[in-house]
Amino acid sequence: MLFDRPRAVNVDLQTDATLQVDISDALSERDKVKFTVHTKSTLPNFKQNEFSVVRQHEEFIWLHDSFVENEEYAGYIIPPAPPRPDFDASREKLQKLGEGEGSMTKEEFTKMKQELEAEYLAIFKKTVAMHEVFLCRVAAHPVLRKDMNFHVFLEYNQDLSVRGKNKREKMEDFFKNVVKSADGVLVAGVKDVDDFFEHEKTFLLEYHNRVKDASSKSDRMIRSHKNAADDINRIASTLYTLGTQDSTDVCKFFLKVSELFEKTRKIEARVAADEDLKLADLLKYYLRESQAAKDLLYRRGRALVDYENANKALDKARAKNKDVLQAETSQQVCCQKFEKISESAKQELIDFKTRRVAAFRKNLVELAELELKHAKGNLQLLQSCVGVLKGDT
Amino acid sequence: MDPSLSASDIASSTKPLSEASSPPVMDLLSEPASEASSAPMVDLLMEPASEGSSAPMVDILSEPASEASSAPMLDLFMEPASEASSGPMMNLLMEPASDDLKEPPKPDIDPLADILNDTPLSEVKTPVAAMPQETPSDLFDDEPSELFAEPRQSNTAKQQQTSIFDEPDEDLFSEPLGEASKKPQNDFFKEALAPVAKASNVCGPLSDNYNEHPTDIFTEEAMTTLPSAVSTVSVNSKTNGVHSDEEEPDIFAEATVELSLDSPRNDRKKKEAAKPSASAPAPSVSASASKPQPKTLEELEEEVEDKFELNISITNPEKVGDGMNAYMAYKVSTQTTLPMFRSKTFTVRRRFSDFLGLYEKLSDKHTPNGYIVPPPPEKSIMGMTKVKVGKEDNSSAEFVERRRAALERYLQRVVFHPSLLQDPDVREFLERDDMPRAHNTQALSGAGFLKMINRATDSLSKMTIKMNESDVWFEEKLQEVEAEDQQLRKLHIMVDSLVGHRKELSVNTGGFAKSVAMLGSSEDNTALSRALSQLAEVEDKMEQLHQEQAASDSFCFAELLADYIRLLGSVRASFDQRMKTWQRWQDAQNMLQKKRETEAKLLWANKPDKLQQAKDDITEWEAKVTQYERDFDRVSATVRKEVLRFEKEKACDFKKQIIKYLESLLQSQQQLIKYWEAFLPEAKAIA
């Protein structure tokens, strides 16, 4: 079921036969999801050409964090980590369903169950897709694809024994984030010497906020669309009951309308699901990716500030003629670091834009096509049904 | 999966049907949270009955009858571990199908047996043996056999569920209970060569118009859905390419659903209707109630139109006065050629309480005789207060419009009732300029309170009267009416909720549109920025569309239901009235009995002086008994006539309104297509 989902939905990646990664399979086990990561590669440092390993969400996070912590990669947009699988809402509803079982008719119960199943499946698929996108992005990245940790992640067929972060580490992370964002504000206040980066900085800041807003709004829209579809579902089943208990010829009519609603609500639910997939997920992905790009700019800004400070320190040292050599080396280190980051960052940001435009194009075209397909299907159903009903009366 | 499935099914099939659904639920609830954690999914799925209970969530999800969707998944789960290395997608896809061919048919039937909760088990079981029988007379005979045939056919078609993201949804949706009755589709498709023959077979014994429907339906459905099959295929082939041709049977099969659904059930219904009425004292009436309806209905319609031309419309709601004493006045315009009115067109102004007053008058006069007096819309203190306070917002305008339409329908129902139209009060209401103000219509007035008490005593006496019904027709009708009332109420709640959610959707779409517009403005790729602002425009229009749709949900559908919930109340009132007259008759009979006993005693005691008095009493009560009996018969006849009339009108109303509603849905889909078609080139222009 997971297999022919359009690959790497939200990123447009040049395919490269030397390293192809996908998630061929996934199982849901209680609150855990186990992904089977399947690799095909001609690279010499793998033992085989094709292999699969089982990985869990935590291991993906570990891989992501290892990229983030690696100084070498400071100049790259680190592909955003996939979000945690979240089945809580689904499970909660399941519980409610169980509690309400006594008070429902069998039809209602089944309908509810159907809705839940569909919902669960959708979340499941999304989870898998997001994890896959992450791997594909890494595999397509000219530098990250060569990372040792990545290779271990792909090949080592045992548990990586990565554990989730404990409380202390979470606290540390939290403080680090606070410091980072405070620092980020400081760094962002520094006027950039390079126009390109200055422009990117203002753009990303605004873009990130707006994409965040759009993402949450799209979620809300889709949720109410789903609710409406669920209502139609229930209406259909009640009409069905009406149709089966009435003895007049209206019953036939009700049955027909019930059947129609049953079909149209399926379409409505599909519209909502496709909007979710093509629109909401796209926005969500670029919310995270723009955050990653912002992080890159922050690292560059930090390096720039460091570099400027080192320059000042060197000037001071020269003036005092004390520790000049030490200051010179540190200035050189900072300079190198800054230049290295700047060099790759520029390309990365340009790539980011290309990717974004391509992904938006692909998704919007697909969205429009799907909307059209569904609307046309719906229209056809309605037309034929109205035709039949009119013929009846 | 198969063993566990069949095991749980066997378990459930031994239980009463009502409980059949509980095992999966238990699973759903307890298991995912419990011990299943460590065992890998594949194992669990393959484990036999003993482990059935600890199957984790996904298992549960796939359990209910969605055999086709889950089976391929399983196979895939098992595969990649081993030699999946070089196996192309095709391979993976093909395998489950063949597996399914071998295995699932057996267990498949049982879940469906569960599902068809109205299907007695025995009936399901038998046809399994005699599978290919297609006696159209029995609905159940058909189904299981189709189920049997199902996996074979649909699995080939469903292979592509693995391929496109959205395909599995369809599966999940289409398999379980609610749709169990649709199963015949495959069978029908197989028999597509001779569907007409079968259709006529089904309908042969029935009257002409029934004979026509199914065939009609079939041909129309089939024809119209065929293009849709083609279109879906083309879309699918884009993403998928491999299995496109296999989709066709599936979709085509759906087209035939209509036929298979309708005809057998109809047939069965007919039988059910025919059975009780054979023993009923008035078989002819009940037969006519169910059979030649459409025809007579049309005739009646024509008659109505021929006999009296009478159009009533209510327009121009207007607020009169200020503050809490304000009220809405409506313009009631009548156009008629009836000689009983003084002129051909005339208008009067009436306020809401006048409508209530009219109802009170009509109800007092006609309900005791067993007539169904159409009730006016209810008072709404909330809505009216809003209007009175003078808030000029959407909801109060909507309230006024809703009420206006409801009043119009109410008045039309009154004048379309041949007996009520003759009532002088109706004429006065329509014609007279200076209508005396209606009293006692305030919900909270003293009179209203008295009415409430009356109603309470009424329902009390209703409970105490135990009528041993001599007429099965009435008993059945009353039950029907009660059941229908319940269902309509439920439906009404759901449609209301749909209206709510659609409004919410409209608001949220509007929010999203704004948000996308902002995103577009900050996007620095020109083409993408432009496309995003176009998307924002599309979403803006969709907001409007959803809002309009919500309005038509409410006006066409919810209001219709509300009307009929009220009308069913009146129908019940007329049944109650019949019961009351019956009670009076019985009381009189008892009294007569007593008098006769007295007479006998007097004769025995030889008291001639009092004997004359007793004899007089007897004649008096005899007359009363005959009178009351005649009353009862008369009321019974009226109720019967009224109920039949009501049902005809209801059928007509529902058809008209629902078709109107569907047309509104149709229009909004057309708009939708227009919007997205305009957007598509914009999206493609992003570079």
From TrEMBL, chain A:
GO terms for cellular component: cytosol; endosome. Involved in several stages of intracellular trafficking. The gene is SNX6. GO terms for molecular function: phosphatidylinositol binding. It comes from the Eukaryota. GO terms for biological process: protein transport; retrograde transport, endosome to Golgi. Residues 13-160 form the PX domain. This is Sorting nexin. It comes from Oncorhynchus tshawytscha (Chinook salmon). Pfam families: PX (PF00787), Vps5 (PF09325). SUPFAM superfamilies: BAR/IMD domain-like, PX domain. Belongs to the sorting nexin family. Keywords: Protein transport, Transport.
Automatic annotation (TrEMBL), chain B:
Signal peptide: none annotated. Residues 1-21, 152-164 have a biased composition (Polar residues). Keywords: Acetylation, Cell projection, Endosome, Golgi apparatus, Membrane, Phosphoprotein, Protein transport, Transport. It is found in: Cell projection, Lamellipodium; Early endosome membrane; Golgi apparatus, trans-Golgi network membrane. GO terms for cellular component: cytosol; early endosome membrane; Golgi apparatus; lamellipodium. SUPFAM superfamilies: BAR/IMD domain-like (SSF103657), PX domain (SSF64268). Residues 1-57, 87-182, 257-302 are annotated as: Disordered. Residues 30-40, 275-295 have a biased composition (Low complexity). InterPro entries: AH/BAR_dom_sf, PX_dom, PX_dom_sf, Vps5_C. Gene3D superfamilies: Arfaptin homology (AH) domain/BAR domain (1.20.1270.60), Phox-like domain (3.30.1520.10). Its main location: other. Residues 99-109, 264-274 have a biased composition (Basic and acidic residues). It is a peripheral membrane protein. Residues 308-437 form the PX domain. Belongs to the sorting nexin family. PANTHER family: SORTING NEXIN (PTHR10555), SORTING NEXIN-1 (PTHR10555:SF129). This is Sorting nexin-1. It comes from Oncorhynchus tshawytscha. The lineage of its organism: Eukaryota, Metazoa, Chordata, Craniata, Vertebrata.
